Amino acid sequence: MNANPEISDIQLEPFKALLLEICGFSFDSGRGQSLHTALINRMAYRRMDSLMDYIALLKRNPDEMHSLVELLTVNETYFFRESEYLSLMMKRLVPEIMNDSPNAQIKIVSAGCSTGEEPYSIAMLLNDILGSESMQRFNIVGVDIDGSVISKAIKGIYGKYSFRGMDHIYLERYFEEAEAGTFRVKKQIMNQVTFQTANLRSSIYPAVMQNSDIIFYRNVSIYFPAQVQEEIFARLADCLNTGGYLIVSATETMHHDLGILALVEMNGLFVYRKLPGTLSRDRRHHRRKEPEAVRPLITKNTRQPEQLKKPEKPDKHFEKINIKSLFDDALEHAQAERPDLALSVLDKIISQDQGFVNAHALRASLLIDAHRLDEAQSACNEALKHDLLCLSACLMLGIIAHQTGKNEAGLKHFRKAVYLDSLCWPAHFYLAGITHLMGENKRAIAGYQTALEILSNGAISELGTKYFPLTFNAQQFLVVCRHKIGILKKT
Ligand SMILES: C[S@@+](CC[C@H](N)C(=O)[O-])C[C@H]1O[C@@H](n2cnc3c(N)ncnc32)[C@H](O)[C@@H]1O
């Protein structure tokens, strides 16, 4: 029984059927009350008291349908929600797609984007890596059935609730203060995202969704019954290029293993992938290379760390624990994307041997990944305290300086890295990036070319692991170097 005597459960049925047909909404699991309240509100607004008249109005007037739908959608979202999927996108999917389609525009769609936090998070992450070039290579699209959330997304103004899953560094980097404690997304990020209203229940999806490389479809399908879930999933799959990925949230994953797309495991997460021949309507069969069996693109360090420094007079306790094997454990956790476990093992190691340089270095790299940059900087300084020539610590200090906009300090650290090892391609790469930012295009081209030459002459797999620890693989740097040189030469 519903609480309000004005509309009985039986009277709700035709509205439920209509909304299921038009929008795919299911009101079975305790959502009947929200439908009831929405109907009362809309009918009061329209000064109507006949349910039959109101349903007739809904059928003939799309604006009224939109207004009702806006009251029924659940728009809960925030920046960097379920960030492990975003980090998987950055570490594996984006490098792979860039590599497979070196010259093509890459499209990432957020289907059911609500107020825009998801597509803006994607734009920020891409901007972090590719700078302003992410605009040229990536087309990010957000669609939602609810016009009111799309209007909010276009305005790009957010209150603190939207930032609850976000590192404050992004607030400083990509937002400016707006009225009354709110923050507006900066133009460079806004310009990268296109928003449009679209109903995923429709049989035809808008052009902005077609030929996508990655579709995020998270926390949307939970409101649809199984039949509708399947239909929408198949239509989204149709929008993907061959080799493209469809990402749902962890709780929704298994419902979609329907044989439409291949379920693949990557870094402990499951995503769907459009392999050749999975669907009949395959629009761009030849654009991308055939995907191989899923392969890791981010080569984490598999090499054994540099010579471990052992304390001169180990005590009995230290001998027992075998610090070397603890470090191997930490490394394994880091490679398997279990940063918290890795960090706790590293803390244990450091509490027993403060001079263990590689523990500080690995710790710093994990902290950079987690955007805990102040702590990462301290970890690098600790490594340098025990080994003044620790190359990875110099590199990471350079990266931290660069990420926090301290380009002069970045130059100093990367130059030191080149001094320590003239073949250190990450240092050449980042030096080129900073000189580009400083407007010195010729030097930037030269820097990228040096990095490219070193990368082209070495075995990529070895180069990717040489300057431990790294988050991106050598192959991806190679692609980015070529891309940057191409762009700089045109300017
Ligand atoms: C909970 S939000 C998810 C936002 C974001 N994807 C996330 O994970 O944070 C679900 C969104 O799906 C939208 N939605 C529901 N049904 C839809 C449909 N038929 N077509 C398009 N969007 C729909 C809702 O309007 C809502 O904004």
Query: How many individual β-strands?
Result: 10
Rounded to an integer, what's the Rg over CA atoms?
26 Å
Instruction: Supply the CATH superfamily name of the largest domain.
Output: Vaccinia Virus protein VP39
- Mean pLDDT across the residues is 84
What sort of overall outline do the alpha carbons produce when their principal axes are compared?
elongated
Q: Which ligands occur here?
A: S-adenosylmethionine
Residue runs with pLDDT of under 50 for 5 or more positions: 279-320
Number of helices: 22
Please summarize the sheet with the most strands.
7 strands, mixed
> What is the number of domains?
4
Distance between the termini: 69 Å
Content-based structural category: alpha/beta
Strand ordering within the main sheet:
6-2-1-7-8-10-9
| Fraction in helix | 40-55%
- CATH-defined fold name of the largest domain: Rossmann fold
The CATH architecture assignment of the largest domain turns out to be 3-Layer(aba) Sandwich
Q: Using the coordinates above, name the CATH class of the largest domain.
A: Alpha Beta
Oligomer: single chain
* Strand content bin: 5-15%
